[in-house]
């Protein structure tokens, strides 16, 4: 799995820090900071601190990218609606994997 160091979202270059180990809050595996144009993604589970599956890490990255899109566009559709953004993240990940845009060694390829 290759996580880029930067990603362009709406004309803005976001720095991606991976892995980032959250010490400030124990309930996070990812974070989007629109003002700093930064995305943080943890490679560990926020409770057990065990390595997370690649699929979970990618879903977290997609989740934070969707937050960035929401922020950059100014729509704020996902504000206070983590369940909705998580559902979209899971579906986008499935679409990218099943259609060959992402490779994941943990998912059997057909």
Q: Would you give an account of this structure?
A:
The chain has a single domain, classed as Orthogonal Bundle (Arc Repressor Mutant, subunit A), CATH 1.10.10. It has a four-stranded mixed beta sheet with strand order 1-2-4-3, covered by helices on one side. The protein is built from two helices and four strands. The protein is an alpha+beta fold and 110 residues long. The longest helix has 20 residues, at 54-73.
| Shape call | globular
Low-confidence stretches are none
* Count of individual helical segments: 2
The total domain count is 1
Give the N-to-C terminal Cα separation.
Answer: 19 Å
Widest beta sheet: strand line-up: 1-2-4-3
CATH class: Mainly Alpha
**SS class:** alpha+beta
The gist of it:
This protein is 34% helix and 16% strand.
Q: Helix and strand layout, with pairings?
A:
Blueprint: E1 6-9, E2 12-17, E3 30-33, E4 38-41, H1 54-73, H2 82-98
Parallel strand pairs: 2-4
Antiparallel strand pairs: 1-2, 3-4
Helix pairs in contact: 1-2
